[in-house]
Amino acid sequence: MSKKRTLDGFFKPAQSKKPKLGTDTESASIPEDTLPRDASNHPTYPYPVPHFPTSITDALAFAPATEGRAINDQPDLDLVYFEPYIPKEVHKELFKFLRQELFFYRVQYTIKRGAAETSISTPRYTTVFGVDASSYFSPTGVLLDAESQRPIPKDRYTCHPRPLPQCLDALRILTEGSTDSTYNFCLVNYYASGADSISYHSDDERFLGPNPSIASFSLGAKRDFYMKHKPFPPAKNPSDPPPPETRQIKLALASGDMVLMRGSTQANWLHSIPKRKGGESERGRINITFRKAMVRGGTENYYRYNVGVGGVFGWDEGRGEMVPWEGGAKKGEKG
Ligand SMILES: O=C(O)CCC(=O)C(=O)O
Question: Best substitution site from 197, 253, 287, 301 to test ligand 1's pocket, by max atoms within 8 Å of Cβ?
């Protein structure tokens, strides 16, 4: 999709109609007569996100492009690897579309260890959509309580949850159909170059519940995905058998691939995308994960670490990089 169409067709007109994010954001919604028909919008969005063009929607009807391959030959490991999931006819267009149309953040935060505060700069662009299972969005974007189906109390969240735009929601629905799980969150990472990374961690937070299923899509540059077993607890008695042997896993994730991590995987294994020097990594990679957060803490956590309090970034096709967005245009873009 050309930038011109994006800017002229959706960006500017919808901006002027965008409702203000007031104090009562939980009940804010977009009046239906001002909803753009071909883009998703919400008071929490810096700018609207176009719906998928029919070329993408039509091609996604053929996903998953391959059957998933189980990788479960090591202790506590339960993966299904779709190589690829996204049909080869469309993975490039999907990558370009999402990089062009989504808004991203470069989150900084501080962590406290004892008396010492450390400042952390997340080494990649991130964005997030969704809300935990205690709430859901009405079709017009109002946050409702899952039990009473009435607008949530104003103090439920300190963050401002955002509904999935139509494009990511279409991918969520597809993913649910092929993974036997449901999801209420979509996290997106953009690794602009080989210098961007995610260090070893597991998605084992309590707010995901036990044995969470996480579906993780790759688009764009090929990057290595490493997994290793968490350290086993020390033996309690000298007569205890030694822990089982495990091997590090390396998957060279290509554009269109999807890895489903499920069962006991998150409780026992760590995963990472290490930094790389030069090569294909410089072309940029998008990672999309679908997850299900059960309680409010998950919503607060995901928005804190994937939106944060800093500025918005959007892709500038002319410059070939993410640029700060300054309320109407991306910096450096012409009129
Ligand atoms: O980029 C990837 O493939 C992994 C992303 C990831 O581990 C995460 O978002 O927790």
Answer: 287
Distance (Å) from CA 203 to ligand 1 centroid:
9
Alpha-carbon distances of 59 from 56, 86, 87, 94, rounded to whole Å: 5, 9, 7, 10
Domain residue limits at 122: 52-230+247-310
CATH label of the domain that carries residue 88: 2.60.120.590
In a domain, 138, yes or no: yes
Total domains, the chain: 1
Domain-embedded: residue 331? no
pLDDT digits (tens, 9 = 90+) for 293-302: 999 999 999 9
CA distance 165 to 30: 14
Flag whether 241 is in a domain: no
H or E stretch including 80?
strand 79-82
Residue 182 included in any domain: yes
What is the secondary structure of 30-68 as a DSSP string?
Answer: --GGGS-TTEE--TT-SS-EEPPPHHHHHHHTT-SSS--
53-85 pLDDT tens trace: 999 999 999 999 999 999 999 999 999 999 999
List the structure tokens of 244.
């089982």
DSSP state of 2: -
**End-to-end alpha-carbon separation of the chain, Å?**
19
Contact assessment for residue 171 and residue 97, using Cβ atoms and an 8 Å cutoff? no
Report residue 105 as tokens. 């953040």
The whole-number pLDDT of residue 4 equals: 31
Burial (0-12, 13-18, 19+ Cβ within 10 Å), 66: middle
CB of 289 sitting under 6 A from ligand 1: yes
- DSSP annotation of 211: S
